[in-house]
């Protein structure tokens, strides 16, 4: 995973935080309606994924699928980037 560009490490950390939130079952105390539902981590993007990131996301999806967690990327080209 160190082959990703440094700017992508922030996204990687956020994904890892989501995974930990689900695996520690904290999600069920924060969002009780999640109980009994198939959980999916969805990344929303404004631009198509570079090949390296696309490969990385596919690998994440494979690993999480084995753990019963969904993962996908949704391209929202009609959305505007939030102002920071």
Protein model, in words:
This protein is α+β, with helices and mostly antiparallel strands and 84 residues long. It has one domain. 43% of the residues lie in helices and 14% in strands. The chain is built from three helices and two strands. The chain has a two-stranded parallel ribbon. Strand 1, helix 3 and strand 2 form a beta-alpha-beta unit. The longest helix has 16 residues, at 51-66. It is globular, with a radius of gyration of 14 Å. The two termini are 27 Å apart. The model has no long low-confidence stretch (mean pLDDT 88). InterPro entries: DUF6572.
Summarize it:
The protein has 84 residues and is α+β, with helices and mostly antiparallel strands. Helices cover 43% and strands 14% of the residues. The protein has one domain.
Characteristic key phrases:
globular, 3 helices, 2 strands, alpha+beta, two-stranded parallel ribbon, 84 residues
Overall number of structural domains = 1
Name the poorly predicted regions.
none
Radius of gyration: 14 Å
> What integer is the average pLDDT?
88
Let me know the largest β-sheet. 2 strands, parallel
Distance between the termini: 27 Å
Structure classification: alpha+beta
Strand neighbour order, sheet with most strands: 1-2
| Structure annotation, total helices | 3
β-strand percent reads 5-15%
| Helical proportion, percent range | 40-55%
- The H-and-E topology, N to C, reads as HHEHE
Shape: globular
**Count of beta strands:** 2
